[in-house]
Amino acid sequence: MLLPSELRAFRAEVRAFCRGMLPADIRHKVDRNLSLTRDDHARWQKILHERGWMGGHWPVEWGGRGWGPAQRWLFEQTLAEEGAPWLIPLGVAYVGPVLYTFGNEAQKRRFLPRILSADDFWAQGYSEPNAGSDLAGLRTRAVRDGDAYILNGQKTWTTYAHWADWMFCLARTQTGDRPQDGVSFLLVDMKAPGVTVRAIPTMDGKHHVNEVFFDEVRVPAENLVGEEGKAWAYAKFLLVQERLIAAETGKARHLLERLRKSADETCEGGRPLSEDSTLRRQMAEAEIDIRALEAVCLRLLGRADGSAPTGVEANLLKIRGTEIEQDVTELMIRVTSRRGLPFDPAAFRPDWNGAEIGPAGAIGLAGEFLHLRAATIYGGSNEIQRGIIAKQGLGL
Fold first, then answer.
1. C-alpha distances in angstroms, 24 versus 19, 20, 31, 328?
2. How far apart, in Å, are the Cα atoms of 66 and each of 58, 70, 306?
3. Residue 360's pLDDT is what?
4. Minimal CA–CA distance to 42: which of 95, 99, 80, 91?
5. N or C: which end of the chain has fewer CB within 10 A?
6. pTM value?
7. Active site (catalytic) residues
8. How many angstroms separate the CA atoms of 29 and 39, rounded?
9. What is the DSSP secondary-structure string of 231-293?
């Protein structure tokens, strides 16, 4: 990957910082794909915040560094390559940019500093039981009542809602000519009366996602972002941010390095699997796919005018990034299964301290493989992304 000299220097700085400052216990959990707690994420985010990097792509006036798209992408990819935890995007990458772009001054002063300091965690109230990738079909309603909105409805697949202090929520406040009309962007206190969070068990044995119910929840009118009924523009702005960072080439590269190590350590017929010609070809193909996607990301993010990718371009990055992650973890499962691949759901509990069974990291690898089966669904399914590309990009 050919980088300008200033970006190469920045990458080296980030790599050195991560190797020196990432707590050993958190690194171990990430390397073994074990459960991270809210405190684990908050500790790492606070370390990044002290360095001034938690919201490096934010404007300087709101605590950022004013990074361009390429520098931001390189920062996040380098952290992932070094085995740092997923930088939960719900606050810093999603609602934060919406607030400093469309929010009022009071909202910016109230919420932005606490996002950067990891004192507040956020959830995304978009998907509903009958409105997932088809977001325009949402049914959650908010009715104005004096100085507040009364919120009723349900959200689903809500990532880390059980940790969240706040949710940015799409709710229908009016009925318009199009289903996209009349939707508003509300900030909801997750501790408010009438908010109920219920876990949704997933097949990897971890607690990622939830159902969230709103029963006559009173949301102060001051928590409306932008104009009432105009949230579709804010939602599209946020979704581009979401799909842009879904390429996750750094994570794919980190997984590929683990695959190579496992292939070196796993023998069949008295020889390491890394000498098997079929596996060597498959790993080389994965490396080529990752490098190609990195090159596309840099080309799109490194434009001379500093512009970020368009919606269609972000959709393409999301599709390929999630497919590559699935391909690499499937290869990892095939290699590790030669030595026995245990799967004990109890090992995913944050308080689990039992002995590891089988090859190092095998239990967590099984969970990562299962978790990434959802990668081509969450954030807007890849089938929906292809439809958008066909319609908006190719005019079909």
1. 10, 10, 10, 25
2. 5, 12, 12
3. 64
4. 91
5. C
6. 0.88
7. 242
8. 13
9. HHHHHHHHHHHHHHGGG-HHHHHHHHHHHHHHHHH-EETTEEGGG-HHHHHHHHHHHHHHHHH
CA distance 126 to 186: 11
For the ranges 122-126, 222-226, 384-388, the lowest mean pLDDT is seen at 384-388
Amino acid identity of 281?
R
Single-letter residue type at 72: R
The strand pairing partners of 343, in sequence order, are: none
Residues 32, 364 contacting (CB under 8 angstroms) = yes
Question: Judging by DSSP bridges, how do beta strands 148-155 and 141-145 pair with one another?
Answer: antiparallel
158, 170, 147, 128: which is closest to 219 by C-alpha? 147
**What are 181's two structure tokens?**
């009309």
> Is beta strand 267-268 parallel, antiparallel or unpaired with respect to 166-172?
unpaired
Distance CA 215, CA 326 (A): 38
The H or E element that residue 5 is part of is: helix 5-21
Q: Which of 259, 298, 395 is nearest to 77 (CA)?
A: 298
- Structural contact between residues 377 and 246, judged by C-beta atoms closer than 8 angstroms: no
**DSSP state, 84?**
P
Q: Locate 271 and state its tokens.
A: 């020889």
Whether pLDDT at 275 is above 80: yes
Any idea which residue has 């497919």 for tokens?
A: 323
String of DSSP letters for 337-391: GGG-----GGGGSTT--PPPPSSTTHHHHHHHHHHGGGTTTTTS-HHHHHHHIII
| Range scoring the smallest mean pLDDT among 167-176, 198-207, 234-243, 266-275 | 234-243
pLDDT given at position 223:
98
| Distance of alpha carbon 231 from alpha carbon 376, whole angstroms | 25
Q: Phi/psi zone of residue 306: left (φ > 0), alpha (ψ -120 to 50 degrees), beta?
A: left
The span from the CA of 3 to the CA of 261, in Å, is 27
Residue among 91, 89, 79 nearest 51 (CA)? 79
Q: Average of pLDDT values for 99-127?
A: 97
Q: Is the pLDDT of residue 344 over 80?
A: no
Q: Would you state the structure tokens that stand for residue 43, as one six-digit string?
A: 């500790």
Sign (positive or negative) of CA dihedral 184, 187, 191, 192: negative
